[in-house]
Amino acid sequence: MSRYDSRSADPASYRDRKSESGLGGYDSSSSKRDYEPQKKVDLDGLTPFEKNFYVESPNVANMSESEVEEYRKRKEITVEGRDVPKPVKSFDDARFPDYVMQEIVKAGFTEPTAIQAQGWPMALKGRDLIGIAETGSGKTLAYLLPAIVHVNAQPILSPGDGPIVLVLAPTRELAVQIQQEATKFGASSKIKSTCIYGGVPKGPQVRDLQKVLKLLLLHLEG
Hints:
Layout lengths: L10 H11 L6 H7 L23 H4 L3 H11 L15 H4 L3 H10 L6 H11 L14 H15 L11 E5 L2 H15 L6 E4 L5 H9 L4 E5 L3
Parallel strand pairs: 1-3, 2-3
Helix pairs in contact: 7-8, 8-9
């Protein structure tokens, strides 16, 4: 005879023994009493979040499809997706606010790089975007400058709010470099940012996080 044959044939008695021993008893009536339905969030009461700030310039609007394709081919730009905006050929075509243009002029840039020319219209429109480009191609400003525009268009943050922009970087060195660019190009609009990474005292980083931040950079290991 099997050693399990001595167990009662009544399955209820087995559940009772489990409950008495504290190994998984389940009281459905208690669960119903403790359950409280979640309150519905009033989405209509949320502050509107504007995310489309792109106004196509006449120069860009007047580009024919063949001109667009020629420009993309010359700049080695490949695009996928629906309703992809035309690329911009100059900083003026991007129609950044004056406070952004001042920083571009200070930096001495002459024309957008490929990732910037195609990426800026998409980012300024608030579209989801994945951009792939080689090192030194201007990727950082391709997302930082539209991010600055988005930040300045939102309501003023209160303590405990934010950040509005989150940037994840694979290395500490890159995270620090991105913050330097964010500090430089965000200076004219007084955008506060900080960089969080390991290997340094946590105190200053914690104090930075307690401030009203608009841009946060994180270094992720692995």
